[in-house]
């Protein structure tokens, strides 16, 4: 046990030397979200009082709080707060398309996605929940050491495709899930992943991360469009003529994602990299709460 602890501490210190920017930024971002303990505000088996609610069909007489009921004409049930930790899995798209920014002073989409994923992990771990990254194949865990593991996985190099698809292997049944991507690739794998998640009773939040340039399409005249990986290239002399068609397709893509999440009980939103990361983190936090 002593050797294991020493090895873990040495490994954590080694990782910390290469992770300070991301981990520190994520912890600072998470600290701006002061919403109390995450994931516990729902009824269930526990010790702490949560709320009174009117008695409904199916409630047993032993559940009635007679002292509270005596103050009104109806019967009220005393609910306790759920104490079991939940599992949350996060998929961060690390495909080549995410390594884009329309301004060198603005964050890459991939950098924003990693920051949000780690900040969300900090909030979840601080709230006593279990969290993990879906692409690692490892089960979700709790505790501060898990944050080191997640930060390491988020900053490790690996071969990636031009466009990403959600990883759903190993999702625990009934867990919560977060997808962070630009969702600019083929929609078929996304729809398949959502169908698999729904079959397992998994609900969650899908955040589409876009650079403002991808929303505005501010191109005109002779322009060469090339994907990050270089597999797609298109040259035109009249880029402005493509603007309306591009914007129509982007709007259709958003509508498709929104409909997909509605059908599966998820939540969907778009985040632009020129907006604060805090606004996106607040939305993700609230979306997981609404998904209960």
UniProtKB/TrEMBL annotation:
Species lineage: Bacteria, Pseudomonadati, Pseudomonadota, Alphaproteobacteria, Rhodobacterales
Superkingdom of this protein's organism: Bacteria
Any Pfam family hit: DUF58
InterPro entries: DUF58
Name of the molecule in the record: DUF58 domain-containing protein
Positions of the DUF58 domain: 51-251
């Amino acid at each position: 046990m002593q050797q294991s602890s020493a090895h873990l501490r040495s490994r954590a210190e080694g990782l910390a030397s290469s992770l300070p920017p991301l981990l520190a930024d994520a912890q600072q971002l998470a600290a701006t979200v002061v919403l109390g303990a995450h994931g516990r505000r729902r009824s269930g088996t526990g010790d702490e009082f949560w709320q009174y609610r009117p008695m409904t069909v199916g409630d047993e007489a032993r559940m009635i709080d007679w002292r509270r009921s005596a103050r009104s004409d109806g019967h009220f049930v005393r609910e306790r707060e759920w104490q079991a930790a939940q599992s949350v899995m996060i998929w961060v798209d690390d495909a080549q398309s995410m390594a884009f920014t329309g301004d060198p002073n603005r964050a890459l989409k991939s950098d924003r996605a990693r920051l949000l994923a780690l900040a969300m992990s900090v909030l979840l771990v601080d709230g006593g929940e279990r969290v993990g990254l879906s692409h690692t194949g490892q089960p979700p865990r709790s505790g501060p050491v898990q944050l080191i593991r997640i930060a390491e996985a988020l900053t490790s190099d690996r071969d990636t495709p031009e466009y990403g698809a959600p990883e759903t292997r190993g999702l625990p049944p009934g867990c919560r899930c977060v997808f962070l991507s630009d969702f600019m690739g083929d929609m078929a794998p996304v729809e398949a992943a959502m169908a698999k998640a729904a079959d397992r009773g998994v609900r969650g939040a899908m955040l589409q991360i876009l650079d403002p340039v991808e929303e505005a399409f501010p191109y005109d005249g002779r322009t060469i469009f090339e994907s990050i990986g270089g597999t797609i290239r298109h040259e035109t002399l009249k880029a402005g003529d493509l603007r309306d068609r591009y914007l129509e397709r982007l709007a259709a893509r958003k509508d498709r994602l929104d409909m997909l999440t509605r059908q599966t009980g998820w939540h969907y939103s778009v985040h632009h990299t020129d907006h604060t990361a805090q606004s996106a983190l607040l939305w993700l936090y609230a979306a997981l709460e609404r998904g209960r």
